[in-house]
Amino acid sequence: MSDRFVVLGLARSRCQWFCDLASWSSHAVAPIDYIKCLTPDEAQALIGSGRRLSAVLVDAALPGIDREFIALVASIGAATVVVADGASSRDWESLGCSAILNSAFTPAELVETLTRHAVPVDRSTRRATRSNVGPTCTTPLAPLIGVAGSGGTGASTVAIALAQELGRDSSEPEVALADGARVGDMSMYHDVGDVLPGLPELVEAHRVDQLDPQEIKRLLFPIQNRSYHLLLGQRRSRDAAAMKPHSIQAAIEGLRRSFDFVVLDHDPDLDGEAETGSIDIEERHTLSRSAAKTADLIVLVGKPGAKGIHDLIRLIDRYSDLGVPRERLIPVMNQATKNPAHRLATARVLAELSSSPSSEASTLVSPLFLRNVRRMEELHRSAAVLPEALGRPVAQLSRRLLLELGQRQAEAAEPVRLRAGELGLHGRPQQDAGRSGRRTQARRETGTPSDRPSTQGPSSRRDVA
Questions:
Q1: All structural domains of the chain
Q2: CB atoms < 10 A from the CB of 457, how many?
Q3: What tens digit of pLDDT does each residue of 278-334 get?
Q4: Global pTM?
């Protein structure tokens, strides 16, 4: 057959199946081209080199095989197949693996698995393989409500009040309040007496496995008087460097599978590689960007005054530019005055200055005005119950919007323009042929000397000289 499966094997050097694959490939027992790798770093270097692969077979006992490695394999369109000796203790399918093979598999079983989950490399057109290897999740996810605001606006206080009122419902829902800020303060506000476990531990647990709801709840602190569970945030700035994008997204999904509502207090840091030219900055802002792209509602908190309104309008525009529908944004003016004229003027300014031609199809929700609460510092110091007037309006509006709009649907990945020479070009020969044809036509129209018909005799070269 002209097309063969290009298989990368990643295992210990003395694994029996690791050696069998080389023999099957060299003796044409199976239609595969086999590549050996002994460490995940070596495999990542080969994947990054642009080599086209159909599948990666990995040893289940090999360290370093986590969610990020499997996502890297999926990014080039290859399938990850795990080879295990017996019943594996890890949920490989939830990590994104396509199939699991017993270590004593036969050539027929290998070919059947590759035919079902992988795509052979087309040698005639040199197209890159593409297969759907993303994990499927049938468990319904709970609503995710993000809360963000500029420094000093009281966004964390609004997040606490919102989680408290959502948890006070008569149906007794289970609510999780997660501290996703780069500098976590929720442990101080709640006086939990400890700083771990928290978000770093939850993300690390999802790097190599998918936790059950009961295991996730053990990482949170129950706040009995406020009727929610608290997930502490980062303790040091360097914690963000150890949390990888796919593991962060899996941790958020784990929270949504384990609770009825998830309130995520996060920073409004949305800059990515497209805005800054740095992939490191985009990875540092993964939590905020994931919240913006997946949250059912986003509560944006501001303060009265020219500076507060300016910051709130900027947040509305930034979240809208990232793809958040404007009807899912809830602007909140914290510590607002009781003057009806001032509130009406603020609402009008927000509606006028935050509008753009691209947002005519969607309407921004009317802002909520929360009054100033006296002795708020004492309430935080004693971790007491917050007044209903602070969180009840936000909770009622959130419930109403969730009923009207429903949960937010996952958006399809936007197409990315590829440069010449990059892995993943489809129909490259046709494009090159079309491009060369256009160049030939352009030379004829402009009369390029190489394409002009020759009308002179043998002395034409001397005449030109």
A1: 5-117 (3.40.50.2300), 144-405 (3.40.50.300)
A2: 7
A3: 888 898 899 999 999 999 999 999 999 899 999 999 999 999 999 899 999 999 999
A4: 0.73
